[in-house]
Amino acid sequence: MDERVELGLALLERLEYESLPLPEVVDRIETVTNDPIVTRTILDEAELRGLIEREEGIVRVKSRQYVRFEEQVVTKEGDFSCRRCGSSLSTGYFLKLEGGELGPFGSSCIRKVTGRE
What we know:
Helix content is about 40%, strand content about 30%. By secondary structure, it is an alpha+beta fold. The protein folds into 2 domains: about 5-60, Orthogonal Bundle (Arc Repressor Mutant, subunit A); about 70-115, no CATH class. Pfam families: DUF5830 (PF19148).
């Protein structure tokens, strides 16, 4: 399976919301891919694996596995652009997931992507 799909599934599995509107879920998936076919595949596979339920534009997250910031978020110094908003960064936050590493993100975007904000 495409590594972007596995990374997207790992991200959805760690969201800290019980439910989100579909556009907000897609916003998070877009940190992995902007390809609409891959996005659809991630959503379909997440539903097949029982990670989410979709109904009337709302996605309900079934997993209760949250990101442990001390263990799963690492910071790196360098010249980065945030994967979510495009801002310039000197410190990038990277999310270590089973499917791979996702990032860099700025300090507010890492909280948004993981559901802390």
